[in-house]
Amino acid sequence: MTAPTDPTRPIVPGDLFARHQTITGLRALADFIEDNPAVPVTSLGEFYAVYTRTDTDADGRALIDDVAALLDVQVCDDTDRGGHYRASRSFGRITYQAVHIPPRAQELHEARWSYARNIVLDPPTDETTNGAPGGADESADGEQAA
Questions:
Q1: Whole-angstrom Cα distance, residue 102 to residue 82?
Q2: Which of 83, 99, 10, 124 is nearest to 47 (CA)?
Q3: Pairwise CA distance, residues 146 & 144, whole Å
Q4: Using CA atoms, how far apart are residues 34 and 27, in angstroms rounded to an integer?
Q5: Distance in angstroms (rounded) separating the CA atoms of residues 76 and 84
Q6: What's the CA gap between 88 and 117, in Å, rounded?
Q7: Coil, helix or strand for 25?
Q8: The pLDDT of residue 84
Q9: Contact 65, 57 (CB under 8 A)
Q10: Residue 16: which H helix or E strand, with range?
């Protein structure tokens, strides 16, 4: 595994541009929220998730290991249950999370969703609308509400 601050790791110009735009955007958003107290924010916080784009499972895991070291956190490894390999750290109510989806987990996900286009719900009927007996427009004895 390469050390997290290894200067020999290649720098990708597109990544530098995306990084710059992300940092600029986050700062602009923080300034906007601070300058406009009437703008609502979520009380639950937000996730900033980054997914690995590596050629191998080992490379993806190594990248998450590097990020975990930089974040000073332990890796959360749910791969034995078909889950992901990830590292996350909260900064107040904002959580940064780096995620590697192992090939097997991705294959299982794609297999499950391969049937999605074959599932078509029936169109709504009178029984499933508010005008149905017992619906919002009718009393329990079938009379229309006034």
A1: 8
A2: 99
A3: 6
A4: 10
A5: 8
A6: 34
A7: helix
A8: 92
A9: no
A10: helix 13-35
Helix spans in 49-96 (H): 57-71
Q: What pLDDT is attached to residue 1?
A: 41
Report the alpha-carbon distance of residue 57 to residue 81 in Å, rounded: 16
- Model pLDDT, residue 143: 53
DSSP codes of every residue in the chain: ---TT-TTSPPPHHHHHHHHHHHHHHHHHHHHHHH-TTS---SS-EEEEEE---SSHHHHHHHHHHHHHHHT---EE-GGGT--EEEEEEETTEEEEEEE--HHHHHHHHHHHTTGGG--PPPP-GGGSTTSTTSTTB-TTSPBP-
> What is the mean pLDDT of each successive set of 10 residues along the chain, which is 146 residues long?
50 77 94 96 92 91 96 95 93 95 81 82 76 49 51
Q: From residue 80, how far is each of 32, 104, 105, 118 by CA, in Å?
A: 42, 11, 10, 30
